[in-house]
Amino acid sequence: GLIDRGYANPKIYNFGINGATAQVVDLVLRKLLTPQQLPKMVIWADGSRAFNSGRSDRTYDAIIASEGYQQLGSMSRVKTSNSSSLLQAQSSVKNTYQQIDNQIDLKLAAISSAYHHRDRLKTWLQSKVPFASQINVANNDAISNPDAPPNINDRSVDFDGFLAVKIQFDPNTYYQKYPKVAGDSDGDYANFQLLGSQDRALQQVTSLLSAHKIPLIFVNVPLTNLYLDKFRRRHEKNFKQYMNKWMNSRQLTFVDMDGFLKRQYDRFSDPSHLNQWGASDVSNYLVQTKLIPWQVLNTNHVIDR
Predict the structure, then answer these.
(1) CA distances (Å), 38 to each of 34, 219, 231, in order?
(2) Is the pTM of this model over 0.70?
(3) Are residues 51 and 22 in contact, defined by beta-carbon separation less than 8 angstroms?
(4) 119 phi and psi, to 5 degrees?
(5) What pLDDT, in 10s, does the model give residues 133-170?
(6) Beta carbons within 8 Å of 44's beta carbon, 6+ residues apart
(7) 303 secondary structure, DSSP code
């Protein structure tokens, strides 16, 4: 990887959040991290679903409704002379969402994935986790036994924020258990529109990073060909045109990985999410592409969605 290319001990941290949208990424960069904490480069790996302004953004709404976020809003108006209070409020917001995020990660331990079961996940969350009733769970995961205790050993986030998912998608067995969900029935694409709250969030992110001369790399992550039906493909096409306009304006670098691994199903945990082997393949691809200015790294952090 990067070490083999001469970048000694690069510091990389994953700030990925379950169900995150452009608004959530904007919140992390502008309100949770101080200017001093911003990295030298931001790699934002996601796709069109995070930019759909036509659907309710329950993950973002849950965060801003939290007590910790209210504290952060209050503290951010305090001058830098009281920076310790601001950092305390930041920590409160992080801990509030971390509790939710950890509960999601733990409950999904060693289980299969399917879109039509995520309502069962929401039901479990609503009974166990504060603010969970407002969360839009974007991961298409099935819970085989909602009352069973989570298996911590099978699913854990490492010190740098990375989660290794070992589930491998096999369409031959997967679709014997779970129905194939068409794009026009997928809530993530409901009322799909790129202009709106998510677009404004991207504008705020690019303005912030531009002001600090921080490169922004957006990676359009791979999806399987089985997931990209005609309905989803049409929206993906519009999304790529949208991102290319941003790239042409030189406000970000767009790395389009559409088609990469699309038939290598063992690299996915379900039809639309990579597993640890797929993530490794994507990482190796990114290290080799000339689109990313890795030379800015040195020993500074990279944010990865």
Answers:
(1) 7, 19, 38
(2) yes
(3) yes
(4) -65, -35
(5) 333 333 333 333 333 333 434 446 776 778 788 999 99
(6) 25, 216, 217, 218, 219, 303, 304, 305
(7) E
